[in-house]
Amino acid sequence: xxxxxLFSSIAASAMVLTTLAPAxxxxxxxxxxxxAAGSGVGLTRSSGSLHDAGMATSGSANVNTGTxxxxxxxxxxxxxxxxxxxxxxxxxxxxxxxxxEIQLFNYKGASKDGNKNGALTVIDSRHSNGNSNxxxxxxxxxxxxxxxxxxxxxxVDQKGFMLNMAALNENPNPMTSLKSxxxxxxxxxxxxRTVVDASKSKVGKTWGNHTWTLPAHDDxxxxxxxxxxxxxxxxxxxxxxxxNAQ
Length: 246
Known about the structure:
Layout (H helix, E strand, L loop, with lengths): L1 E9 L18 E5 L12 E3 L6 E2 L26 E7 L1 E5 L5 E3 L10 E2 L3 E6 L15 E7 L2 E3 L2 E5 L3 E4 L17 E4 L6 E6 L9 E6 L7 E4 L6 E12 L4
Parallel strand pairs: 1-6, 5-8
Antiparallel strand pairs: 1-18, 2-3, 2-4, 5-9, 7-17, 9-16, 10-15, 10-18, 11-12, 13-14, 13-17
């Protein structure tokens, strides 16, 4: 299970719902260091790190000869045989008056798990027969629950909010085309709704990376705000990835 925050602020008008660690890269940059004294550019070619100083193509000014080089790193982690909840979105609904419904504004939040890209991502790298050559997946479900909203200056749980999400197509995927479910999530902390249903008929068709991006400034994701006192409110969304596809 992963959690992320919904933030909501009503202040005279306020609202907010709210892969491997890279290995060290050697000091491989070469050229004429801009960290030198005097002109700021070394007179002899050297090697070092761009974190310390940039590299010029030449130690002489106003010439069109020479080169500077540097190395960066690309990293990826490949998963095989596992079902993974890889990303859940934070949601910020900005500011609003009470008693209104407002579109998702951006993805800022203070949760430990939520991302700032609006992405819900699941990876299904399982093989139904245990053979790595069988790229089929084994189906899954994603459900969500929204806790009551809270205001730091008011300890009363606010259960009158409603998070509404329309059905969303997953980002282009050459293997599948899974669509999320339209859901309305009350902020009562107990009502669980299925956001993605890749079970039953979808079993054997879920292998791969699946990402659904919640669009900001769009009616596809909206928060209905009750008529309550001004202030900043936040709630937690609990996301659950269920491997039982039955």
